[in-house]
């Protein structure tokens, strides 16, 4: 997922990234039904043993904890590490530089990264199984007099620059005939935005879960839901060009992605354990994790034509509103790692 918590430390440079890497732990627990999933690839691809893949995560979507619980990488012929980011743009930059090999981000970071001519590709979609569940919202403080998106005119909106929430803010304004110049976009990282929101320094906050859900629980109100047609509910996997151009490494990276798809397929069938994984990664109460579980129900699929069209439309909005200065051709930064028709929702493992 694209979301994050205040516990995550930004990894925007190699040295910072190194401090965030955590080796994936093996699981010998009886609740590890996927631990034998990689035996075939281990036997067939001994050449992969030289690789250590770093998986970037900007959302605390449970992937690292799920890897431990399911043991999905235990028998992989390569090593895996995880790196955490505060939000998407630094993750895309790390993918482009090769500091990570694969990472999941929201809909906007690939656009802003491409506008800066970073060397990466979109390789898969983490597709929402509950597209009617918003994973981010524009929220206002308790007692706010703002009632509709049109009321944002002239107001201060806290936004993580270059993130999916940035796209939500732009599209919400556009939906009522406004542009970024009609409101004051205050670019703040999630932690700083939370402080600004709680102290009344901004009038609204475009942000994802669990921050949005927690703020609402504490009295804030949702002004604009992050739902189609103004927002996407799925996220995208990106990978570095360098790895994708290496045939052997590309094949191994495809195996990494398929294993991730297996753990998510398992998680959907084991919601209680998935909630525990989310709670631990995000540092939130188990009850809050269970309440937001629907928004984290995803399956990994290839990038489809409709995804490219949605991303292109969003890229054009960013260009028209002056948020980027270079036109982005989304099709040219798309390179599917998964075969057509691949659907992890059909996989069974126990």
TrEMBL record:
Stored Gene3D superfamilies: Periplasmic binding protein-like II
Domain of life where this protein originates: Bacteria
Keyword Protein transport attached: no
PROSITE patterns: PROKAR_LIPOPROTEIN (PS51257)
Gene Ontology molecular function terms on file: ATPase-coupled transmembrane transporter activity
Location relative to the cell: Periplasm
InterPro entries: ABC_SsuA_sub-bd, Solute-binding_3/MltF_N, SsuA/THI5
UniProt domain Solute-binding protein family 3/N-terminal: residue ranges: 52-285
SMART domains: PBPb
Predominant location: periplasm
Job description of the protein: Part of a binding-protein-dependent transport system for aliphatic sulfonates. Putative binding protein.
Membership in a protein family: Belongs to the bacterial solute-binding protein SsuA/TauA family.
Protein name, entry field: Putative aliphatic sulfonates-binding protein
Protein source organism: Streptomyces populi
């Amino acid at each position: 997922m694209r979301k994050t918590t205040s516990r995550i430390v930004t990894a925007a440079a190699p040295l910072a990234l190194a401090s965030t890497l955590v080796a994936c732990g093996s699981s010998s627990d009886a609740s590890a039904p996927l631990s034998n999933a990689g035996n075939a690839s281990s036997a067939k691809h001994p050449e992969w043993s030289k690789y250590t893949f770093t998986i970037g995560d900007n959302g605390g979507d449970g992937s690292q904890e799920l890897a431990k619980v399911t043991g999905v990488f235990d028998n992989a012929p390569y090593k895996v590490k995880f790196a955490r980011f505060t939000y998407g743009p630094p993750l895309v930059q790390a993918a482009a530089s090769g500091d990570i090999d694969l990472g999941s981000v929201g809909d906007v970071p690939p656009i802003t990264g491409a506008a800066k001519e970073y060397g990466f590709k979109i390789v898969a979609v983490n597709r929402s199984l509950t597209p009617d569940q918003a994973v981010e919202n524009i929220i206002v403080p308790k007692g706010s007099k703002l009632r509709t998106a049109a009321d944002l005119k002239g107001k201060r909106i806290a936004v993580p620059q270059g993130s999916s929430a940035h796209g939500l803010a732009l599209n919400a304004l556009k939906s009522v005939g406004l542009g970024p110049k009609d409101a004051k976009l205050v670019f703040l990282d999630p932690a700083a935005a939370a402080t600004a929101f709680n102290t009344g320094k901004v009038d609204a906050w475009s942000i994802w879960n669990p921050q949005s859900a927690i703020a609402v629980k504490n009295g804030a109100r949702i002004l604009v839901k992050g739902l189609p047609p103004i927002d996407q509910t799925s996220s995208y996997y990106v990978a570095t060009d360098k790895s994708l151009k290496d045939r052997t490494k590309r094949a191994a990276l495809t195996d990494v992605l398929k294993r991730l798809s297996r753990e998510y397929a398992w998680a959907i069938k084991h919601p209680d354990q998935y909630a525990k994984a989310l709670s631990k990664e995000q540092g939130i109460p188990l009850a809050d994790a269970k309440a937001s579980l629907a928004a984290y129900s995803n399956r990994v699929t290839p990038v489809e034509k409709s995804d490219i069209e949605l991303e292109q439309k969003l890229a054009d909005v960013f260009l028209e509103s002056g948020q980027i200065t270079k036109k982005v051709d989304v099709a040219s930064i798309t390179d599917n790692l998964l075969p057509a028709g691949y659907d992890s929702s059909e996989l069974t493992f126990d």
